[in-house]
């Protein structure tokens, strides 16, 4: 079996230089990449750069190598087409089916997954015309990942920044992996049109200005859930509790610290969500009082006991007060003993639809790239997930969620 064939379309925006890093990651990971830049893109990055990085001449004109019919063949033979950056103009031409250059011809002939990574000024991204074009492309099955928030050209900042190339690469990798998996219905962005909320990381409960009660969660499983959902076409809101990880491409990240902050953010984000997956490790207790100054050691004295109070049960609250009747709520349960028995009891008490139960401690789960779990369903189902990458568990969770979505 040959290398997966990827077409990298590059539009004419200042972010075109970042596509060089995406191209490098794709080629170094074993993909055969053909670059199709627009005429405007070549004003930012020259043809020689694309050829040197890809190992192929850049496909520029419909009229080049006419005997090979490039405007048809390139799209037909691709396993994935990714357009990064995708400007407002490119999105508009793709949505309206125009074929006035090699890239738009390629998009019309491709029968493989197509990923757009938009980059433009905030006003352009938020314009009704662009929003309608994006909605049209998504209805047709394309994955249009949300742009990042940050510095744009000049002094402007806002939503419209191209996500980091490493994160766009992760979306491409996940899309290719799913496209290669044999299914009866073939590849599809099966979460397209859905809004999902994912929590990740571990909450911190402040004791004084320098100390807190926390846990060992790195946020890796929640981030894997967010990345996987985005690669399957969902609009994703990630509630990140103290996770020191790069923002996944196409994901709206809301940063929180304490359980109370996570609770407020989860209730707000869940108002229009089709599914809520609470993968964050939430502190059960918090200090009853907060010391405004650093608690000092006193010579010859033992420290005063720290009184604790319960935090709200966020998962149970979300399950009991669903914003919509068909909302699917998923919880995570980290256990150290009697894993399944404790998991079944927790599933019943929380009222959620699915509970992912995994054993933690002694190097398991927390801070690693792998996980092993059993997904318990309120319908009595049990789905064991063997030890493997956290993104594999994430895909199984979304498979189970999708089966429960109306």
TrEMBL record:
Cofactor: how bound: Binds 1 FMN per subunit.
Residues that, per the record, bind CTP: 284, 294, 312-315, 332, 346, 350
Entry superkingdom: Bacteria
Gene Ontology CC annotations of this record: phosphopantothenoylcysteine decarboxylase complex
Gene Ontology biological-process annotations: coenzyme A biosynthetic process; pantothenate catabolic process
Protein encoded by which gene: coaBC
Taxonomy of the source species: Bacteria, Bacillati, Actinomycetota, Actinomycetes, Kitasatosporales
Protein family: In the C-terminal section; belongs to the PPC synthetase family.
HAMAP family: CoaBC
Protein name stated in the entry: Coenzyme A biosynthesis bifunctional protein CoaBC
Domain annotation Flavoprotein: ranges: 5-174
EC number annotated for this UniProt entry: 4.1.1.36, 6.3.2.5
A Pfam family per the record: Flavoprotein
InterPro entries xrefs: CoaB-like_sf, CoaBC, DNA/pantothenate-metab_flavo_C, Flavin_trans-like, Flavoprotein
Catalysed reactions, semicolon-separated: (R)-4'-phosphopantothenate + L-cysteine + CTP = N-[(R)-4-phosphopantothenoyl]-L-cysteine + CMP + diphosphate + H(+); N-[(R)-4-phosphopantothenoyl]-L-cysteine + H(+) = (R)-4'-phosphopantetheine + CO2
Segments forming domain DNA/pantothenate metabolism flavoprotein C-terminal: 191-402
Keywords annotated in UniProt: Decarboxylase, Flavoprotein, FMN, Ligase, Lyase, Magnesium, Metal-binding, Multifunctional enzyme
Main function: Catalyzes two steps in the biosynthesis of coenzyme A. In the first step cysteine is conjugated to 4'-phosphopantothenate to form 4-phosphopantothenoylcysteine, in the latter compound is decarboxylated to form 4'-phosphopantotheine. Catalyzes two sequential steps in the biosynthesis of coenzyme A. In the first step cysteine is conjugated to 4'-phosphopantothenate to form 4-phosphopantothenoylcysteine. In the second step the latter compound is decarboxylated to form 4'-phosphopantotheine.
Region of interest called Phosphopantothenate--cysteine ligase, as start-end residue ranges on this chain: 196-406
GO MF entries: FMN binding; metal ion binding; phosphopantothenate--cysteine ligase activity; phosphopantothenoylcysteine decarboxylase activity
Annotated PANTHER family: HOMO-OLIGOMERIC FLAVIN CONTAINING CYS DECARBOXYLASE FAMILY, PHOSPHOPANTOTHENOYLCYSTEINE DECARBOXYLASE
Named cofactor requirement(s): Mg(2+); FMN
Family matches, as Gene3D superfamilies: CoaB-like, Flavin prenyltransferase-like
Region (Phosphopantothenoylcysteine decarboxylase): 1-195
Recorded metabolic or biological pathway in which this protein acts: Cofactor biosynthesis; coenzyme A biosynthesis; CoA from (R)-pantothenate: step 3/5; Cofactor biosynthesis; coenzyme A biosynthesis; CoA from (R)-pantothenate: step 2/5
């Amino acid at each position: 079996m040959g290398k997966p064939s990827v077409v990298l379309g590059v539009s004419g925006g200042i972010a075109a230089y970042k596509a060089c890093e995406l191209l490098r990651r794709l080629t170094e990971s074993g993909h055969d990449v053909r670059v199709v830049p627009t005429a405007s893109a070549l004003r930012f990055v020259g043809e020689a750069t694309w050829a040197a990085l890809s190992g192929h001449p850049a496909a520029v004109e419909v009229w080049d190598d006419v005997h090979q019919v490039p405007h048809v063949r390139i799209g037909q033979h691709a396993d994935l087409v990714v357009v990064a950056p995708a400007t407002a103009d490119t999105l508009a031409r793709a949505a309206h089916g125009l074929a006035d250059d090699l890239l738009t011809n390629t998009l019309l002939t491709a029968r493989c997954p197509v990923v757009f990574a938009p980059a433009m000024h905030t006003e352009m991204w938020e314009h009704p015309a662009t929003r309608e074009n994006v909605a049209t492309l998504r209805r047709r099955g394309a994955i249009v990942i949300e742009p990042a928030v940050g510095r744009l050209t000049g002094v402007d900042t806002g939503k419209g920044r191209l996500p980091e190339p490493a994160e766009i690469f992760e979306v491409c990798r996940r899309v290719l992996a799913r496209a290669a998996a044999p299914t009866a219905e073939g590849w599809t962005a099966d979460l397209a049109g859905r809004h999902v909320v994912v929590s990740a990381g571990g909450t911190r409960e402040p004791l004084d200005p320098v100390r807190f009660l926390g846990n060992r969660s790195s946020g890796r499983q929640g981030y894997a859930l967010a990345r996987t959902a985005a690669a399957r076409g969902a609009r994703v809101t990630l509630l990140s509790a103290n996770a020191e990880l790069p923002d996944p491409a196409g994901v709206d990240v809301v940063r929180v610290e304490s359980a109370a902050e996570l609770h407020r953010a989860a209730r707000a984000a869940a108002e229009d969500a089709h599914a809520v997956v609470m993968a964050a490790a939430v502190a059960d207790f918090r200090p009853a009082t907060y010391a405004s100054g650093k608690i000092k050691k006193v010579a010859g004295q033992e420290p005063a006991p720290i009184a604790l109070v319960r935090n709200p049960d966020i998962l149970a609250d979300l399950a009991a007060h669903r914003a919509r009747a068909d909302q699917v709520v998923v919880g995570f349960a980290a256990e150290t003993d009697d894993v399944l028995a404790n998991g079944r009891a927790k599933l019943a008490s929380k009222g959620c639809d699915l509970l992912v139960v995994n054993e933690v401690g002694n190097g398991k789960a927390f801070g690693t790239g792998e996980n092993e779990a059993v997904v318990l369903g309120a319908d009595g189902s049990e789905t064991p997930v063997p030890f493997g990458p956290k993104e594999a568990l994430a895909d199984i969770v979304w498979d189970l969620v999708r089966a429960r979505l109306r």
